[in-house]
Amino acid sequence: MSDSFHLDRARVRRNFARAARSYEQHDALQQEVQKLLLERLGFYLETPQRVLDVGAGTGRGSALLKERYGKAEVIAVDLAVPMLQAAKQHSRWLKPFQRVCADATALPFPDHSVDVLHSNLCFQWIDDLGALFGECARVLKPGGLLAFSTFGPDTLKELRAAWASADQQSHVSRFLDMHDVGDALISAGLRDPVLDVDRFILTYSSPAMLLKELKGLGATHADTARERHLTGKAHYRRMLEAYEAMRVDGRIPATWEVVTAHAWGPPPGQSRRGAGGGEIATFSVDSLRGSRRR
């Protein structure tokens, strides 16, 4: 993400930990986006041995991956332990998946050990795209598939506009344009990225119901630039009044811009851009044996 704002990672973890019990009461959009993401798995024609579900949450997606790839080792990865505890309910006796608590920018898996890396609506909570996609490129096998979804900048634009009419503070999380995401994929060395954008407009009976859903999902504001004190009642009331003026057919609209994408693990030795702007290439020791001249 840009240098102008950063995410409070500890707050992101706390938000999702607290939402573990309520998450599945509010995840209708997440399930719909999951369907789009599963379609992208059709591009992978091999039989995977290891499949990661990064940002697995309560494990609905992990269970679907295990259904699809019954013989594969499916691993649900999440930053919040309570989410992984909740995911146990979806890990069936006949088709279990493993659960690992880890940060997506520091995956505890060997280089080139993953066939499919799947992530549904998680990457928007990571502000270091270079580190994120660098890890994806590192753990994926050459030709392995990365398939993910994330939110674009028009997400919650109505809520953002309503708050802007109340004050000039940061109240709503911001998200990157798909072109920035595509650039980061290429910089990490991932091959042939394909990105698409869909817009979903959900409606609510009141702004308060939208805010309740965001809290229930753990998707509340986590920018480091957010105000640290409680929002005043007058500001909150002005925000509600501004949002009420946006009613359409008696309902409050909320736009969700969803980016779905896939890319491929790079071949051995393909270079990627380093943090300092240089090029980095990696090779196995075996590939270098016999190449040294005396």
TrEMBL record:
Top-level EC class as recorded in UniProt: transferase
Source taxon at top rank: Bacteria
Record field: catalytic activity: malonyl-[ACP] + S-adenosyl-L-methionine = malonyl-[ACP] methyl ester + S-adenosyl-L-homocysteine
Keywords carried by this UniProt record: Biotin biosynthesis, Methyltransferase, S-adenosyl-L-methionine, Transferase
Pathway participation: Cofactor biosynthesis; biotin biosynthesis
InterPro entries: BioC (IPR011814), Malonyl-ACP_OMT (IPR050602), Methyltransf_11 (IPR013216), SAM-dependent_MTases_sf (IPR029063)
Residue span of region Disordered: 263-294
GO biological process: biotin biosynthetic process; methylation
One Pfam short name: Methyltransf_11
CDD domains: AdoMet_MTases
Sample GO molecular function, one term: carboxyl-O-methyltransferase activity
SUPFAM superfamilies: S-adenosyl-L-methionine-dependent methyltransferases (SSF53335)
EC number: 2.1.1.197
Stated family: Belongs to the methyltransferase superfamily.
Stated role: Converts the free carboxyl group of a malonyl-thioester to its methyl ester by transfer of a methyl group from S-adenosyl-L-methionine (SAM). It allows to synthesize pimeloyl-ACP via the fatty acid synthetic pathway.
This protein's name: Malonyl-[acyl-carrier protein] O-methyltransferase
Native organism: Dyella thiooxydans
Gene designation per UniProt: bioC
